[in-house]
Structure to design on (245 residues):
């Protein structure tokens, strides 16, 4: 009975999380082999996310090496608070102050793609919309009542929910169409979506920096097993040939 109660207690947080927004997730078609996309994603993260969030399990040096960014270029354009290239990617914001400002310290984003998934992050960053009733003036369809400002608004522009009139069962109702920018951002809608995909690509990389190398090794192991199987099968046939005689 105690084990059952413990299992239910452990399961409740997961159920509460799953019972959140029902907003459908868009497909994040990221590509970990696209170095240009990863470099742009790193640039966006360092410029717009690192002020609050950090990646305390990822080093600048590892990032620069994996993304083919020369160290001197990375230090000049992607390091802003005097860190060493061998340091972890940490935020200059004090944890105590951030907890006061936001209600809780902003989470570390090193492994966020493994926790949330690429599709969730991609959709989340594209579903902020103006909501004057909120502290930061915005809300989010994917994460309702999130305590975070829309830090990428200068790129996207002012996002507003768009509706259209639809006739359902003989009654005219407002049907959700999407989120559209007022056009006052630095990027067009397609460019903004591409920028978000680059950022997701980068976060996917930091969640598992050795993924491509691991996949390459895995393929090599499978090839070895296949070749070994052939030799083992031939050896087995040779042994049994002598037994049958």
């Amino acid at each position: 009975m105690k084990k059952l109660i413990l299992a239910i207690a452990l399961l409740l947080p997961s159920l509460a999380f799953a019972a959140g927004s029902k907003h459908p997730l868009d497909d994040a078609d990221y590509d970990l082999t696209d170095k240009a996309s990863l470099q742009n994603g790193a640039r966006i993260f360092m410029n717009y996310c690192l002020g609050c969030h950090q990646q305390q399990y990822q080093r600048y040096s590892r990032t620069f090496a994996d993304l083919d960014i020369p160290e001197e270029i990375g230090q000049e354009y992607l390091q802003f608070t005097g860190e060493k290239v061998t340091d972890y990617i940490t935020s200059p914001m004090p944890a105590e102050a951030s907890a006061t400002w936001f209600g809780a310290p902003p989470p570390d984003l090193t492994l966020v793609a493994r926790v949330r998934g690429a599709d969730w992050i991609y959709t989340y960053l594209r579903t902020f919309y103006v909501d004057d009733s909120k502290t930061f003036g915005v809300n989010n369809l994917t994460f309702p009542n999130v305590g975070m400002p829309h830090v990428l608004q200068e790129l996207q522009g002012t996002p507003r929910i768009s509706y259209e009139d639809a006739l359902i069962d003989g009654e005219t109702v407002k049907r959700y169409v999407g989120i559209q920018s007022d056009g006052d951002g630095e990027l067009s809608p397609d460019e903004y979506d591409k920028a978000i995909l680059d950022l997701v690509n980068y976060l996917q990389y930091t969640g598992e920096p050795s993924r491509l190398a691991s996949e390459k090794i895995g393929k090599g192991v499978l090839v070895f097993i296949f070749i070994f199987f052939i030799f083992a099968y031939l050896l087995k046939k040779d042994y049994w040939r002598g037994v049958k005689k």
